[in-house]
Amino acid sequence: MKSTAGMQPPRLAPLRIQAFRRYGLANLVSATGSAMAPLALAYSVIGQGAGAGSLGLVLALNAVPTILFLLAGGVLADRLSRSRMLFLGNLLAAAAQGVLAATVGSGLATTASIALCGLVSGIAVAFIQPAAQGAVGQLVPPVHLQQANALLRLPGNAVRVAGPVAGGLVVAAYGPAWALAWDALTFAAAALLLLGLRLDAPPAVGGALSALREGWAGFRSRTWLWTYTAAGTVLVAAWLAGFQLLGPLVAARFYGGARGWGLVQASFAGGLLAGTLVCLRWRPRRLLAVAVAGGAALVLPLTALGTGLPLPVVLLSAVLAGVGLDITIVAWTTAFQQHVPAAEQGRMSAFNGVGERLAIPLGYLLTALAARVWDTRTVLLACAALIAAAVALNLCVPDVYRVNRRPGHY
After folding, report:
1. pLDDT tens figures, 246-270
2. Region at 207 (left for phi over 0; alpha for psi -120 to 50; beta for the rest)
3. d(Cα 254, Cα 317) in Å, to the nearest integer?
């Protein structure tokens, strides 16, 4: 049998499929707004004179509804049309961001109102993510899954390079409301594009509760899946608490505020783009091991910020983190799609998503409290240490090295 390493894949083959092109365009349009949204949200809170506590509350309330509704989204993604779920999820996100932009722009926004809009956005994510995970397998042949996953991320990551810089300039010049309004508009445009995507509903067997129980049994039976999820519980919480919560606060104090933080985010996005280009050419056999190891790169920017290194060093560390993270995402998504049956992907994705998000609200709140007791940079270094430990422990799991690329798959 020939090794896949010696074969030259048709890297652009998924683009020949009209439905895939529509799906990719919807992702690209949405990404142009999402690239500005985190910075705009952070400075909506900071602009009120609030600190780590208020921002931590807002980010936590954005994560909680996703955790609560994600299992429902996973069951529905294995029973209903995934394209319809994607349409409704994007429409709900557009409404939430539109209301948020209006309240921030009118000067009526409070921490509570910002958090409430974030809560609605979190519900939207709970229905978008499981449907999106299973939709790709319905759009392209199995042999082209990695190419499809990389191509979907390529334009979005390209937008994210300029998006944070543009967002920083917009926020600095006109305020965060304009960036949030653009995010709402792009969600609405993506919803309209997805409305024309017709994906058949997976065959449903039994009731919803029965499907949930079967999904849990399938999740527990895959050691590689639940151990990756358990490591992700720590890694994702530590990364988001460090980068999204403390990052803007450190930038506001030491790196020039919104403009400086926009450069950091743009550098991170540039790394994501570079990682996607790597994934279009590199086809590692040990997909899951590569996915786990790539997460270690997230330690770099947190360490650079935590040790007070100069901005150019912080930017370089953000680039390297982006490269590692994108390789992780593409390798993980491809391994998941190749080793989980299509009819179970919504539920398995939901259990994985719940596990990875479970500690996020607590992580935000604990980090915000810790930042009141210890120096912010010390807390950033603690987040970096947690990520390093999670990656090291996950690499000790033997099943990580058994979930490899299927023969003949690109």
Report:
1. 888 888 777 777 778 878 888 898 8
2. beta
3. 17
Amino acid at 157: N
Token look-up 């000790």 returns 396
Quickly state the pLDDT bin for 244 (edges 50, 70, 90): confident
Rounded distance between C-alpha atoms, residue 263 and residue 257, angstroms: 10
Q: Alpha-carbon distance 110 to 280, whole Å?
A: 44
CA separation for the pair 29, 368 (Å, rounded): 33
CB within 8 A of 18, min separation 6: which ones? Answer: none
Fold of 15-196+204-401: Growth Hormone; Chain: A; (1.20.1250)
Assigned token pair, 392: 């090291």
Secondary structure class of 204 (helix, strand, coil): coil
207 vs 40: CA distance, rounded Å: 42
pLDDT score at 48: 62
- pLDDT tens-digit map of 313-340: 999 999 999 999 999 999 999 999 899 8
> By percentage, how much of the chain surpasses pLDDT 90?
29
**Domain boundaries, given as residue ranges, for the chain:** 15-196+204-401
Structure tokens given for 182:
């653009």
CA nearest to 225, candidates 41, 349, 138: 349
Distance CA 34, CA 53 (A): 23
Amino acid at 409: H
Q: Sign of dihedral through CA atoms 47, 53, 56, 60?
A: negative
393 class by beta-carbon count within 10 Å (0-12 exposed, 13-18 middle, 19+ buried)? middle
- Whether the CB-CB separation of 58 and 111 falls below 8 Å is answered with yes
DSSP, residue by residue, 4-70: GGGS---TTGGGG-HHHHHHHHHHHHHHHHHTTHHHHHHHHHHTTT--HHHHHHHHHHHHHHHHHHH
Nearest-angstrom CA–CA distance, 348 and 130:
8
Radius of gyration over every alpha carbon of the chain, rounded to an integer in angstroms: 20
